[in-house]
UniProtKB/TrEMBL annotation:
Signal peptide: 1-21
A family per Pfam: Cystatin
Protein name per its UniProtKB record: Cystatin domain-containing protein
Family to which the UniProt record says this protein belongs: Belongs to the cystatin family.
GO cellular component: extracellular region
Intracellular or extracellular location(s): Secreted
Organism of provenance: Myotis lucifugus (Little brown bat)
Domain of life: Eukaryota
Source organism phylogeny: Eukaryota, Metazoa, Chordata, Craniata, Vertebrata
Length: 103
């Protein structure tokens, strides 16, 4: 019983910080953030009804939820001339004129 009291006090003391839902700034240069951006871009392109693919122009905010793999990111994307199922979307030029679109 006496051993359980320090364990319980430790869990009470550590519980709130571990369960925090606070987002903290994350470096845009980490490999895990780059993988997260690539995943977000893929999911965005798949969810769009638009037949053209979008590619990343720049990253605004980059944050990660403490003690988790949840990211909060602001991405600026532009519509390309390539279809979303083309191989090399990163090297596709952006659309110009009336078809130009940024999100």
């Amino acid at each position: 019983m006496l051993l359980k009291v320090p364990l319980l006090l430790g869990l009470i003391a550590l519980g709130p910080p571990v369960c925090s839902s606070k987002f903290v700034d994350e470096s845009k240069n980490t490999q895990l953030f780059a993988i997260g951006v690539e995943f977000a871009m893929f999911q965005f392109n798949q969810a769009q009804e638009d037949e053209y693919a979008y590619k990343l122009l720049w990253v605004g905010r980059s944050q990660r939820k403490l003690f988790s793999w949840n990211y909060l990111m602001d991405l600026n994307m532009g519509r390309t001339v390539c279809k979303k199922h083309d191989e090399d979307i990163d090297n596709c030029p952006l659309q110009e004129g009336p078809g130009m679109k940024e999100v």
